[in-house]
Amino acid sequence: MPFQSVTKLADADFPTAWGHFRILGFEGVVANPIPCNVDLPAPATRIESAVALVMGDIHAAPPIVRIHSQCLTGDVFHSLRCDCQQQLHQALDMIAAEGTGILLYEQQEGRGIGLMAKLRAYELQDHGRDTIEANLELGYAADCRHFELPAAILSSLGLTAVRLITNNPEKVEALELAGIQVVERLSATVPSAPTNAQYLQTKREKMGHLVL
Ligand SMILES: Nc1nc2c(ncn2[C@@H]2O[C@H](COP(=O)(O)OP(=O)(O)OP(=O)(O)O)[C@@H](O)[C@H]2O)c(=O)[nH]1
Ligand SMILES: [Zn+2]
């Protein structure tokens, strides 16, 4: 999906529990976005935003990168329905251990369907649907995300090669397509729990994620 523009809007000091980062804010304008829901009209343009947490010298060698999709329920409320919060913390632990790396936090809540639709999908899952079936029943694609904005941000940071923390082959493909070499894929697998076992099984069996 082509971007009309990708702009860096802010670059500030950012001390955290994991160490010292810079926090960068980016905005991208997408022209003629493909609608994600069959029942909703597509706007002429869509604005996407993402945050980059940058630690250390990211140009000395291909840095560790995590592209993390927003999950309010997991990241903020520590939900046990998914593995997002543990993945977020694991990635920040890995970056802190190396003293360098980038966490891209992109606002594609609920695999791009938005928070309210994700909560409605949870309701359907409570009645037996898996994550994909619930999205489809609400008129959405199984996964509405695309990863052009994170790729464009990495390019704008002057990177041509990274080590990517992910189990999702689509993220690797998206970066490679954008001319960013993924020289290593680092596993984003975290221990499963009874509350997220079916969620992880669907990712593995129906979405092709490399969850061990
Ligand atoms: N639609 C929908 N989205 C969900 C659900 N559970 C979690 N999500 C969203 O899924 C996104 C995370 O995607 P995942 O498929 O778990 O993982 P990934 O980012 O593709 O892959 P990794 O890089 O391996 O973590 C976040 O935006 C969550 O809000 C759900 O039941 N339904
Ligand atoms: Zn989550």
UniProtKB/TrEMBL annotation:
Listed pathway(s): Cofactor biosynthesis; riboflavin biosynthesis; 5-amino-6-(D-ribitylamino)uracil from GTP: step 1/4
Residues at the active site: D143 (proton acceptor), R145 (nucleophile)
Cofactor note: Binds 1 zinc ion per subunit.
Binding site for GTP: R66, I67, H68, S69, Q70, Q87, E109, G110, R111, T131, T166, K171
Binding positions for Zn(2+) per the UniProt entry: C71, C82, C84
Catalytic activity: GTP + 4 H2O = 2,5-diamino-6-hydroxy-4-(5-phosphoribosylamino)-pyrimidine + formate + 2 phosphate + 3 H(+)
GO cellular component: cytosol
InterPro entries: GTP_cyclohydro_II (IPR032677), RibA (IPR000926), RibA-like_sf (IPR036144)
Domain GTP cyclohydrolase II: 10-186
Keyword hit for Cell membrane: no
GO biological process, one term: riboflavin biosynthetic process
Keywords annotated in UniProt: GTP-binding, Hydrolase, Metal-binding, Nucleotide-binding, Riboflavin biosynthesis, Zinc
Family from the record: Belongs to the GTP cyclohydrolase II family.
Function according to Swiss-Prot or TrEMBL: Catalyzes the conversion of GTP to 2,5-diamino-6-ribosylamino-4(3H)-pyrimidinone 5'-phosphate (DARP), formate and pyrophosphate.
Name assigned to this protein: GTP cyclohydrolase-2
Originating organism: Granulicella sibirica
Origin organism lineage: Bacteria, Pseudomonadati, Acidobacteriota, Terriglobia, Terriglobales
